[in-house]
Amino acid sequence: MSDTKGGLKYSLNISDKCEGCGICCVQYMDYFEELDDGRAKAKNKVVVLSGEEVEKIVQLCPCGAISCEESKKNTKQQFMRLLETLETYRAKYPEKKQLAFRSDEYFISIPFASGENRYDYSSDSAANNAAGREFNNKMFSQINVYILKILTEYRIKYMKPYYSEREDENSYYVKCNKELSQILSEAADLLKSEGLGGSIPADFSKVAVFPNDDLVWKMLCNGEVMSSEMVSAIRSEYDSGPCSSVNDYECYWDTDYTEVYAGTSFGRDKYKDKYCYSNMREAFQELARDILSACHYRDDEIEERAIDLLKGIIDVYNQKLKNVLAPKISYMKKMAGQLAD
Ligand code: SF4
User: I need a surface site. Which of 50, 242, 248, 291 has the fewest CB within 10 A?
Assistant: First the structure.
């Protein structure tokens, strides 16, 4: 934000009338920025403007959403409030409801049973055994893989913002850093409005803290910790359920037989019974429901484990942040003494 000389302090406000046309953000990028929903937001609570500028800014908005009020607040009080916010700032832990595991958000794709409806078997039990083998090969033997896939989706959807890379705008830390940069910018603007902007360090408003050297952060990036531990917990939940072996799913598929021509003997055609299996889809679907149900029964454990892991990363962020903010806070304390009461 520029140091406007000869102006008065104003607070810029944007009302609900804003329709997100973006004109103010383009024309006055020092004062306005775009929110995630496309609407505009004033970057700083207090700015110094001339009467002419106030008029131009207010009239710029086609929706009449921008208002400018002369700020009557005491600069020092505002400055001290910002200082206090910085001194007590801690990135918050996520709440359990933010990391809620809902099994109905996950989808298990049902495999294709390629051996169905082939009258290749000489007995009902041979067809039944072949169905069991197909059930096992296509899905049952992959239960842990399905669980891992669900947990991976959960991790990426709900936990990723807490261990995402610097450039990722969804990063929780990018949001915290932005919030802090905003507070520091406001403090800098207040100093400038009192003619004390000359000594502000160049990187005063910059905050770029990431706990990306934390071991858990790195392990989560590699798909470790959360997934490997929870797969075995969910698998044991599944194993303790009513269906936990291939045989338990037998009732979902069918077997059938038909007479098949088997050559001629003494001038007469001979036939014999041949068997097949079918309706494997129902068995696969039942297994998918059982896997999701096992995940559902362990939802508390999934959420608690996720929170525990993220708390540790956020603690590292707060510690690193403290070190980064310390010189800025001490500069602000020094400057506070120069502001008139
Ligand atoms: S000019 Fe008005 S409507 Fe357009 S983004 Fe700014 S405040 Fe919203």
Answer: 242
- Report the alpha-carbon distance of residue 12 to residue 25 in Å, rounded: 13
Average pLDDT over the chain reads 90
Whole-number Å distance, alpha carbon 312 to ligand 1 midpoint, is 41
Choose one of 16, 29, 59, 63 to mutate for the ligand 1 pocket test, by most ligand atoms within 8 angstroms of C-beta.
63
In the chain, pLDDT over 70 holds for what percent of residues? 96
Q: Apex CA 130: angle with CA 125 and CA 135, to 5°?
A: 125
Ligand 1, atom 7: nearest CA belongs to which residue? 18
Q: What is the pTM of this model?
A: 0.73
| Residue where one domain finishes, among candidates 72, 94, 113 | 72
Kindly state whether residues 19 and 110 are assigned to the same domain: no
- Compute, in angstroms, the gap from residue 11 CA to the centroid of ligand 1: 16
Tell me, using a 6 A CB cutoff, whether residue 7 lines ligand 1.
no
For residue 194, what pLDDT band results from cuts at 50, 70 and 90?
confident
The neighbour count for residue 55, using CB atoms within 10 Å, is 12
User: What CATH number is given to the structural domain containing 49?
Assistant: 3.30.70.20
d(CA 271, CA 257): 12
Question: What letter does residue 6 receive in the DSSP assignment?
Answer: T
State which H helix or E strand residue 46 sits in: strand 46-49
Q: Please write the tens of the pLDDT for every residue from 147-163.
A: 999 999 999 999 999 99
